[in-house]
Design brief:
about 45 residues; mainly alpha
C-alpha cells in the first residue's frame, strides 16, 4: 500500500532524481496549506 507520500519520492542518493513526484507533492502541500489558511480566516472568533 502506497499510503505514505514519501514512498513516491526517489530513494536518494542511490536512485536518480525525478522532479515530477517532488513537484506534485509540493503543489499538493501548497494547495492544502492555502485551504487550511483560508478555513482558519473564516473562523468565528472575537479576537
Amino acid at each position: 500500500m502506497d499510503v505514505s507520500p514519501f514512498t513516491h519520492l526517489p530513494k536518494l542518493p542511490g536512485a536518480a532524481m525525478e522532479w515530477g513526484p517532488v513537484a506534485l507533492l509540493t503543489a499538493t502541500a501548497m494547495v492544502l496549506a492555502a485551504g487550511g489558511l483560508a478555513a482558519l480566516r473564516r473562523r468565528d472568533m472575537l479576537t
